[in-house]
Amino acid sequence: MHHSSDSKKWTLRKRVLIILSCMVFAIAGLWGMYDLYHRLLYESQGPITWDTTVYLGVGRGILNGLIPYRDLFDIKPPGIYLLSAASLWLTGGAAFGSIMEVIAIAGTCVSLVILRLMWMSHRDIRNCYVLFTLCLSLLFGIAIALYAAERSGEFQVESFGAFFLIVYLIVIADLKNANKWTWIRIAFASLFLLFSIGMKEPFLFVSMGCALLLCADKPHSFLHAYVLPLAIAAGTGIFIMVILQYALPYSSIYLPEMIGKHINTFGSPWLRAFHLERIFWDLWAYEPALSLTITFLSLSYLLGVLPHGNRWLFVRRSCAALCALYLFGLSVGLGGEYYNHHFVFAVPGFITFFIIFLQDIQRTPKKRLQYILGGVMAFFLFAVTFTERKIDYIGRLQFIRADSTPAREAADQIDAILDACHLSRYLFLGSNGQQPYAYTVHSPLGPLFLQFDKLLDSDHPQFRQAFLQSVTQAELVVLRDYHINDLRSTVEQELQRNFSKVPWPCVPELSETGYVFFFRSQNKPI
Fold it and tell me: Which residue of 47, 339, 505, 517 has the fewest C-beta atoms within 10 A of its own C-beta?
């Protein structure tokens, strides 16, 4: 009778514990979803970054029949320009891109929940620990989605690349089909690898690191999980660029600039890859609890195999972890600037560590260790959820719209002038930012349709020559705060000698926008 009484007490305590845990998870989940809802609402209203205006400028050029890199130069692979062109074609602006941003952020959030559901069987539905891991997956997904959105939202390229790579990870991490590598599964893996790397090349290194981590337990699966999909993605990407006529300028103009000069501006990128502390401190600056969560996940990748007593598995995982961390550091530091959006390259790596964490706590033979690891992760995720900083999205959106107003007004005037005077292109003199080239229907002259000093120095004679040629060809010049190195005096002399601020007779009435218009004095359009 005494034993029966103790059993009933334990059952009652267990039920109370389960109920309390569910209440805490429910509050944390609702709190996190509330923050995520406001982020998605903000993104749906079309905020864009300074880089986005460049993407839109090249995207408009594609619609106008121009070739990226040859006619309009920028330092991204074709993926983001094709997405921008699609957005302009479908919605006349950045609206479709903003919808895709919402999908990318929401998809990053629910990806781990979807993967955990894929692992479930009918018997798992009533398993409390399975439900517990589903809650952990949701909270971690929310935290990572908000981090990625804050670092690279607003129609920025890294958020798209990270999302596509996360979908690739879901495809290859399906435990139920771990040994079933059908061609359909390989094709989907290839497709999302192509989408990810096509957005930005450093995702090549990230994807390799993630695949090494996931395949450390079964090295033979690396061929089907990564090598074959990567080969198919590379072949498909080359074929598409050949069809679109991007392959030659990409290989002859873009790649030499990126590999030869851009990534070496701040020293050797291979040495910058060791600065993993940059990733930690960026996480800490965003939310200290999130940096501790990622650190715990990284350590658990090695500690998770100790209960199995498998020495060789520990060695394989150690080697995979060292290689993967180096590749993550390389991808983040490749450009050398360490801008906020560069840290999103590491996001698929965080997701990979969490996927393996879920696998390990599910497989561990020691239930006590399972509950300890799960409890520690729950504690960290509660801390992240309830200390997430609040952002003034309304104020930020108002600032972006106010910042873009002069550029939009100038763009309307540029299009009106070119249409009225029967011209097709204009020359923009200025740097990146909220500039008219993002909003004009007519494309600016290129290839440097915006200018930076570093692209017009003595190490870039082809860009200098092309830029000076565009100055001599231009009929209409739009100027605002330009940076053209030692060519400034040459350009100013050309403007003084052959241009005037007095509008042509065909020009409609102009209003003040902050931009200066120069009209060629000779051969005035009628």
Answer: 505
